[in-house]
Amino acid sequence: DELLADFLSGCVDFPPADADVAPLVLYEFGRLMDRFASTELRPDEAENLAADCRSMQELAWHRLHTGHWKDVPVFWRRLYARLAFIVVWLGQQQRQAADSQVGDERLHELLAVCDRGLLLGHPLAQLAGLADRLHARLPAVPACPPCRCCPLAEATRDWPAASAGPARGRTVVRLTRPSLEEFGRLKEPVIVCGVMDHWPAMQRWDWRYLLDRWGHRTVPIEIGSRYTDDDWGQQLMPLSEFFSRFVAPRCAAAADSGPKACERLPCGYLAQHGLLDQLPDLASDTDVPDYCCLGDGEPDVNCWFGPPHTVSPCHQDPKPNLLCQVRGFKAVRLYPAEQSDRLYPVGGGHLLAGTSRIDVERPDLAEFPLFDGADELLALLGPGEALFIPAGWWHHVRSLSCSLSVSFWF
Prior knowledge:
Elements: H1 2-10, H2 23-36, H3 43-64, H4 74-99, H5 104-120, H6 125-136, H7 161-164, E1 170-171, E2 173-176, H8 180-184, E3 190-193, H9 201-204, H10 207-214, E4 218-223, E5 233-238, H11 239-257, H12 259-263, E6 268-273, H13 275-278, H14 280-283, E7 300-306, E8 311-315, E9 321-327, E10 330-335, H15 340-343, E11 377-381, E12 385-389, E13 394-399, E14 403-409
Helix pairs in contact: 1-6, 2-3, 3-4, 4-5, 5-6
Domain JmjC: 268-410
Keywords: Iron, Metal-binding, Nucleus, Oxidoreductase
GO cellular component, one term: nucleus
C-alpha cells in the first residue's frame, strides 16, 4: 500500500539523532517500528503491538500536557502522531481480517484516533490521508437544515449599532489589492479587497459542503460566550454535532427573533484552530495571501467557524494578522497599541495577559474612565474581504451572522 510505504519511509530518519529525550524511549520506539514493518503479523502479534503503541501514546500524552504547550518539544507531538497511525492501521487491518467489513462504530473510533493524533500530535500527511480513507467509508451525514442567518445586504456598510453596541469611532479604510510596497507601509488597520477572489472557498464553503466532506471529523469547540467567562471550556466533537448543537439553533433564533434571542442559546465556536493542517483538502480551497511574505517564516493559519453572535473579547496579538472573511459578517472594534493603558489589560503573567478587562461594546466608564478617551476604529467585514490588524493593535470581534473565517498571523 502506497500510504503505508510513505509512512515507513518517513520514519527512517525519525527520531532525529539530536532529539532531547531519554534513550530508552528512542529504543522502545525503534522496536515498535521494527515489529510494525514486519511483512506478516499474526492477529495476536498485531493486537499486542497495538496495545504497546497505545501505552507509549499515553506516555507522549502526559508529556504533551506538562507545562505550556509551546514549550513541549516537537518530538513528542511527532511521536504521538506516528503512534496514532500505527494504532489505526493495525485496527482497520484486524477488523478487516476478522469480519471482512469494519462496522460504522469501529470506523468512528478509528477516525477519532486519527483526529486526536492530528490535533495533539503533528500534521502528519500519512495520518491525514488515512483519516480521509476512513471518513469516505462512513455513511453521509444527514442533511442539515438551511443556515437561516439574519441576512445583511452586501451593500450595507453602516455600523450595525443595534447588534454590536453603540459606535464611537471612525470607519476603517478600504483598499483594493494594494501593492506589497503600499501594504508594507501601513501603520493602522485597513480592509483589503480582492485578495480572496481566486479562492475556491469563496464558491464552495458553506455548511453543506463542509458536512458532506468532513462531517464525521473531530474538532475542538470552545463552549461558552467568551473565553474570559468562568464557565468557558472546550470539548472535542464531530463537526456535524457542532453544527446541529450550536450553529443551526442560533442561526434560526437570530433569523426569527434577533440577536438577544440568539445570545440566550448555548454558544459553541470553532475558534483559533489549525483546521487546514488537520484537513489538507480543505486547505487547497484557500491560498496564503502574498502580503504574508512580509513576515518572518511561514504564517500561523487558523480557522474561525461559528454561529451568529460569537464574541472574541478585546485583546492584542504579538504578530500582524490578516483576517480573511469567507462567509458572513463580522463587526470589529480596534484600538492602537500605544493606548493600552486605556484598555485596562489583565496583568502580565496571567493566563489572559493581553486581554482587556473592559466589555468595549458596553463599557463601564465609572470603573474604567480612561477608556472614554480611547481612539476607536470600526470595521464591518464582509465576504471576500480581509482585515489587516497590525501587531499589538487591540481588537474585539463579534460575528453578526453565521461566519467562516481564516486568519493568517505573520
